[in-house]
């Protein structure tokens, strides 16, 4: 049910995902969905967990065997591709807070953070600055990918060139630390 909800969210946007629409998509009556999920909030939470695991898998796989700028580029490209391919499920991750350390959302989110933390090991960043560097990477990758997914770059410069420029700029900044 969650996978079907995630696919539908990617199609219609997270805001457009409803229990009724999902029921229609999977060919059941809406009350039947409640055997699988506790309601809209539970569905969105489960989609967020799925999305974080999928993003962690994509980024983690992409950075295998790379370090420094190559790892940064691989992680950024994988994250961007995930957001562009799955905008609805990625949107479910925004603002969703874990209820505690054992919450599957916390575990999934930590996996994604760990993948980006591995990228930072290729740079000489003080331990006290790692959280700041992670927030910077998240802001840059999230911002670019969500703007692109929302058709926010409507001028003539090539989007891929701009993204590569962002990677190079970030790499220079991280090396300068």
TrEMBL record:
InterPro entries linked to this entry: Homeodomain-like_sf, HTH-type_TetR-like_transc_reg, HTH_TetR, MT1864/Rv1816-like_C, Tet_transcr_reg_TetR-rel_C_sf
Superkingdom of origin: Bacteria
Span of the signal peptide: none
Keyword Isomerase included in the entry's annotation: no
Keyword set, alphabetical order: DNA-binding, Transcription, Transcription regulation
Domain HTH tetR-type span(s) in chain numbering: 1-55
Cited Gene3D superfamilies: Homeodomain-like, Tetracycline Repressor, domain 2
Protein name: TetR/AcrR family transcriptional regulator
Species of origin: Streptomyces gibsoniae
């Amino acid at each position: 049910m969650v996978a079907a909800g995630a696919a539908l969210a990617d199609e219609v946007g997270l805001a457009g995902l409803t229990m009724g629409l999902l029921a229609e998509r999977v060919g059941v009556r809406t009350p039947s969905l409640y055997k699988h999920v506790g309601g809209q909030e539970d569905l969105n939470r489960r989609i967020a967990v799925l999305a974080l695991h999928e993003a962690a898998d994509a980024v983690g796989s992409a950075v295998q065997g790379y370090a420094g700028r190559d790892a940064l580029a691989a992680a950024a490209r994988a994250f961007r591709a995930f957001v562009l391919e799955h905008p609805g499920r990625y949107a479910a991750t925004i603002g969703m807070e874990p209820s505690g350390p054992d919450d599957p959302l916390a575990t999934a989110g930590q996996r994604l953070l760990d993948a980006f933390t591995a990228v930072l090991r290729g740079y000489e960043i003080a331990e006290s600055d790692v959280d700041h560097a992670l927030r910077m990477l998240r802001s840059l990758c999230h911002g670019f990918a969500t703007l692109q997914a929302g058709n926010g770059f409507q001028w003539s410069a090539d989007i891929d060139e701009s993204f590569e420029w962002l990677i190079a700029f970030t790499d220079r900044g991280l090396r300068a630390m």
